[in-house]
Amino acid sequence: FLDQTGMLWTVTIDDQTIVSAITGLMPIKGMQGLFRANQIGQTTLSAVGDPPCRQSLPPCMAPSMLFQIQIIVQ
User: Quick one: which H or E segment has residue 47?
Assistant: First the structure.
């Protein structure tokens, strides 16, 4: 569960042939995504959280947050 204090999260998966996001479902409050294991292998899921002020002009200098996990599908 990623911090929900106003951060704007972008989630990426390095190898989507191993794990991919399931789309088209209504998300539950606080849920960042629902994912499917597609085949045996290993990949990295990364989530970068930016404070909303980073989208302002000029953008603020508040730091981003990084969350990263290694996923192993067996």
Answer: strand 41-50
